[in-house]
Amino acid sequence: MNIFINAQPVQLPDGACVADAVAHASAQHPPGVPVAVAVNLQFVPRAQYAHTPLHEGDRVEIIAPITGG
To answer: Which NCBIfam families does the entry mention (predicted)?
Structure first.
């Protein structure tokens, strides 16, 4: 299926879930860094990543915290 992760087109296998999208994007975020995820502008709690299916054309936003001083 074709979806968008942070506005970039991505192809994932049929039946993919939010956890798969987060794993795909993990190269952009160091391991262990918490992220916030929204699918089609709807927040998805971390506990639901594996239980939230993705569909053709979904738009996934993965946002990591920004630190600084």
So the answer is: thiS
